[in-house]
Design brief:
The structure is a single chain. With 403 residues, the chain is of the alpha/beta class. The chain folds into two domains: 134 residues, NAD(P)-binding Rossmann-like Domain (Rossmann fold), CATH 3.40.50; 218 residues, Dihydrodipicolinate Reductase, domain 2, CATH 3.30.360.10. It has 13 helices and 15 strands. Strands 12-11-7-10-9-8-15 form a seven-stranded mixed sheet. A six-stranded parallel sheet has the order 3-2-1-4-5-6, sandwiched between helices. A hairpin with a 5-residue loop joins strand 9 and strand 10.
């Protein structure tokens, strides 16, 4: 670009782009929405108008067969892949082909999860690295100020007592916002690959020594269930609203995963992650904890946070992520894109790409989370712990993702 403003080309104008990434650029004044690639022209135009209203860009719009043209747009410095999971591999192939044909990019960032399975994730990483593109993994939890502060303080103050040995994370909401997300074949799984990818990534970050290397996971155990959405009345609701059959072909709406690591002295370190699409409340309910020999810390996001109350006499549109009602007690968070880590993850990726480097979290981390997710599904399916040293996850597909 001719100016110093960093131009982002978004692949998809969907929920995470419109509600998180684009609003986050209000806090990153040296970056803008330069382009939008989207199959739905109306949705792209709406996001472009929102971008202009927010003062974060006047993006060019590209349609279904115009991905290469967007990548070659001289206003685009890097591409953010936020499209549905089932499109990710093909989108990356298209981006890399455009670069091989002469387009210039400073980097590619991918929303979690980077793929539906290990095979797709390996292919994505291989293609991006073969093209020489810096890359970033967009996992917002690890960029949340509260989580970063808890990690920094506990490791700094507790180091003499010993490293932390348990990280716990629980996250749940009332279910996805798009039809494809309910479809296990398109999404790649269920609540595990949606909610627990966040939780496992956050735990991995909390347990990693800021002054050391990443812990290596040793074994995974897990449970998955469909608790709510396969019940007749709720399955009928999904059929009517999203066209998915949860009576005969459900995905998991609850999962629990335990990952066992070993530290540098061979001692066990544990990650406990749980989540669901079964929560009924004003938004997302979440708890993150880190425990060590003489210390502990918690980050909570739930109904005890700042809130307001509206009676049933009032009605209107929701404003909180995953809000399931417009009356009763509602969370308020004027800086949700800051507190939820979206500003931090985008700032990190932009700065890294400008320096010709990968983000602090890159596609290797994204692959790691997919490997752990597939190991968890296999453990739940087989009813036994998966030894990661011997597990072959190539070709494995979770039960909800199978034809």
């Amino acid at each position: 670009m001719a100016s110093e403003t960093f131009g982002i080309g978004f692949v998809s104008a969907g929920f995470i782009t419109s509600e998180a990434h684009v609003p986050s650029l209000e806090y990153i004044p040296d970056a803008e929405v330069a382009a939008i690639h989207e199959l739905d022209r109306k949705r792209a135009e709406d996001l472009a108008e929102d971008s202009r209203d927010l003062g974060v860009g006047n993006p060019n719009i590209y349609g279904e067969d115009e991905l290469a043209e967007m990548v070659a747009d001289t206003d685009v410095d890097a591409v953010w892949v936020t499209s549905p999971n089932f499109t990710r591999k093909d989108v990356v192939e298209g981006i890399v082909e455009a670069v091989e044909d002469g387009a210039t990019l400073q980097g590619i960032a991918m929303e979690k999860p980077i793929a539906r399975n290990v095979d797709e994730a390996n292919r994505i990483l291989e293609r991006v690295e073969d093209a020489g593109l810096p890359h970033a993994y967009l996992e917002n939890w690890v960029h949340e100020p509260a989580i970063e502060d808890m990690r920094e303080l506990l490791w700094e103050q507790g180091r003499d007592a010993g490293r932390p040995y348990i990280a716990r994370a629980q996250a749940e909401h009332g279910g996805p916002h798009s039809a494809w997300f309910w479809n296990g074949k398109l999404q790649g799984g269920g609540a595990l690959t949606d909610m627990l990818v966040h939780a496992m990534g956050g735990n991995d970050y909390l347990l990693t020594d800021p002054e050391g290397s990443k812990l290596e996971p040793v074994a995974v155990s897990a449970d998955t269930e469909t608790l709510k959405w396969s019940r007749e009345e709720y399955a009928a609701q999904l059929e009517e609203e999203y066209g998915v059959d949860y009576e005969d072909s459900p995905a998991d709406d609850y999962a629990r995963v335990t990952i066992r690591y070993e530290d540098e002295k061979g001692r066990p370190v544990i990650s406990e992650a749980a989540g669901s699409w079964c929560y009924v409340g004003s938004g997302v309910s979440r708890t993150v904890e880190l425990l060590g020999p003489e210390y502990s810390g918690q980050v909570r996001t739930d109904d005890d946070s700042s809130s307001i109350f509206l009676s049933d006499e009032l009605s209107g549109e929701g404003w909180a992520e995953k809000q399931t009602a417009t009356s009763g007690r509602m969370p308020i968070d004027a800086e949700v894109v800051v507190n939820s880590g979206y500003v931090g993850e985008n700032r990190d990726a932009i700065d890294a790409f400008r320096d010709g480097e990968n983000g602090r979290f890159d596609l290797e981390d994204g692959l790691r989370m997919i490997e752990l997710s597939m190991a968890a599904y296999r453990a739940a399916e087989d009813g036994e712990e998966v030894d990661l040293a011997t597990a072959d996850l190539d070709g494995y597909r979770p039960p909800p993702a199978r034809e």
